[in-house]
Amino acid sequence: MSVRKLKPITPGQRFRVVNGFDAITTDKPEKSLLAPKKRTGGRNSQGKMTMRYKGGGHKRRYRIMDFKRDKHGVPATVASIQYDPNRTAFIALLNYQDGEKRYVIAQNGLQVGQNIVSGADVAPEIGNAMPLSAIPLGTIISCIELHPGQGAVMARSAGSFAQLMARDGKFATVKLPSGEVRLILVTCLATIGAVSNSDHQLLVGGKAGRTRWLGRRPRTRPVAMNPIDHPMGGGEGRSSGGHPRSRKGLPAKGFRTRSKTKASNKYIVERRKK
Questions:
Q1: Mean pLDDT throughout 107-133?
Q2: Three-state DSSP string of 54-95
Q3: Which tens digit of pLDDT belongs to each residue from 2-25?
Q4: What's the predicted TM-score (pTM) here?
Q5: Which residue segments constitute the domains of the chain, with CATH numbers given?
Q6: Is the pLDDT of residue 245 over 80?
Q7: Is the per-residue pLDDT at 240 higher than 80?
Q8: d(CA 233, CA 250)
Q9: In terms of Cα–Cα distance, which of 63, 76, 157 is closest to 112?
Q10: Beta-bridge partners for 115
Q11: How far apart are CA 249 and CA 227, in angstroms?
């Protein structure tokens, strides 16, 4: 993993920091695992804008991902590590012994030609998917399920990882990327290793147009709005907007918005840090 700082031969490249793409082995995606991806531009079926600051962006095709890793006991060979425009992490193309091909999230250190497998009785090596009951304590994990068979929902973005802290009965204690410590059923699957492309946080767009290519339109600061448009708007000159809050008046930056009656509260051992 590495990043490159470009020479300032244009204004847009002066501050640009790009990914070195050292881990990428091919730029040709697997055709059988591609699907069309429709863009809404933040509009509903009537064409009215229902989501602000969305629109434009480069055309993409979706890579069909295997988050469930449900081919237990069938070894697969890593055919290539590829870039995916729909996510921050890199993805790996797997060739299973029975001839099937699948895309999975690539873990840091995953190499082309490496064999990986999922199941309860496999070795805890990078890329292998195992139930939390079989993973050694203290192991770095990612792509974690919340419900058995649901598929990975946590620790899937670039560079993220969680740590298996303890096991007690049918629950395992996992420290998540946010710092939250949570109970998860030991029958849930997780993948060994941290997610690839950990240098993603170091990238710099360099110009506004690159953000537009990602499908994000310019965002108006609340303090620059009028009082009728936002609680933080208005005032003479450059007056601050008061306590940070949402457009609907809900306080932010310190005010806890999680419901006190949420069903999953009983599984949270320690809240995330502010």
A1: 96
A2: ECCCCCCEEECECCCCCCECCCEEEEEEECCCCCCCCEEEEE
A3: 899 999 999 999 999 999 999 999
A4: 0.92
A5: 3-200 (2.40.50.140)
A6: yes
A7: no
A8: 15
A9: 76
A10: 77
A11: 12
- Confidence class of residue 1 from pLDDT cuts 50, 70 and 90? low
pLDDT value for 181? 97
Number of helices followed by number of strands (H, E) in the chain: 1, 15
Identify whether the C-beta of residue 270 lies closer than 8 Å to the C-beta of residue 262.
no
The whole-number average pLDDT for the span 45-67 is 96
> How many beta carbons lie within 10 A of that of residue 82, not counting itself?
20
**Phi and psi (nearest 5°) for 82?**
-125, 160
Q: Which of 192, 4, 195, 201 is nearest to 92 (CA)?
A: 195
Four-CA torsion 143, 193, 157, 186, nearest 10 degrees = 20
> What is the predicted pLDDT for the residue at 236?
87
Are 55 and 42 contacting, i.e. CB atoms less than 8 angstroms apart?
yes
Q: How far apart are CA 166 and CA 181, in angstroms?
A: 11
Q: Which residue has the tokens 């434009």?
A: 56
**242 three-class SS:** coil
Q: Look up tokens 């849930």; give the residue.
A: 188
